[in-house]
Amino acid sequence: MGLLRASADAIIVGARTVHDTSPEALWIPEYTYPNAKLLFREYRVNVLRKPEYPLLVVVSGSGRLELERAIFRTPGVRTAVITTSAGSDVLAAAGATKLPSVQIHTLDAKSGTMAPMAMLRLLYAELGVRRLLHEGGPTLFGQFLAAEAVDEMFLTLSPQIAGRKGDTVRPGLVEGMEFMPDCAPWFQLLSVKQRAEHLYLRYGRSGGHPPMA
Question: Which of 81, 122, 160, 203 has the fewest CB atoms within 10 Å of its CB?
Answer without folding.
Answer: 160
